[in-house]
Write a structure and sequence with these properties.
31% strand; alpha+beta; single chain; five-stranded antiparallel beta sheet; Alpha-Beta Plaits
């Protein structure tokens, strides 16, 4: 970590937005993943790859919430650049006692979309929690992480 510095602070340690004006546009893609542990009793209620509650279709609503959140990331993360994302895809896959949420966000821009991908997963997970809490509060959101990013200075892929 020697020689590395935080990108969102100036020399005096004050917060600042990164200046991307000199960067070139490039295709940038970020993928994120997170887990919501619902428990087997809740997941038994899934029919046709969807979980219905009194509030409506849980997974469909969470996907829409995740896409909306990705588009509004700069309103939630103070130093994130406002960008017009070009694509946001979210999948929700039930497994055993949990659901796995994955997002993929892309843009051709001067800045990346890691925060948008992470925000999409986070808000989709919170939406699932909100819609299922009437069934149980014993729900955990875990392992929200960047899985992969391409474009920009260097690529990243979680092993």
């Amino acid at each position: 970590m020697k020689g590395k510095k935080l990108t969102h602070t100036d020399e005096a340690g004050n917060p600042h937005m990164v200046d991307v004006s000199e960067k070139n546009n490039s295709k940038r893609v970020a993928k994120a993943r997170g887990t919501v542990i619902l428990g087997k009793s809740i997941l038994k209620l899934i029919k046709n790859q969807e979980l219905q509650t009194k509030k409506g279709p849980v997974f469909q609503t969470a996907i829409i919430a995740g896409v909306m959140a990705a588009k509004r990331t700069s309103e939630l993360i103070p130093l994130a650049h406002p960008i017009g994302i070009e694509d946001c895809q979210i999948t929700i896959e039930p497994k055993s006692d949990r659901v796995i949420i994955q997002s993929s966000v892309s843009i051709t821009s001067k800045t990346g979309v890691e925060m948008e991908a992470l925000t999409a997963v986070s808000i989709a997970a919170l939406t699932i929690y909100d819609m299922c809490k009437g069934l149980s509060h014993d729900i955990s959101i875990t392992d929200i992480q960047l899985v992969e990013k391409t474009g920009g200075k260097k690529d990243f892929k979680r092993s």
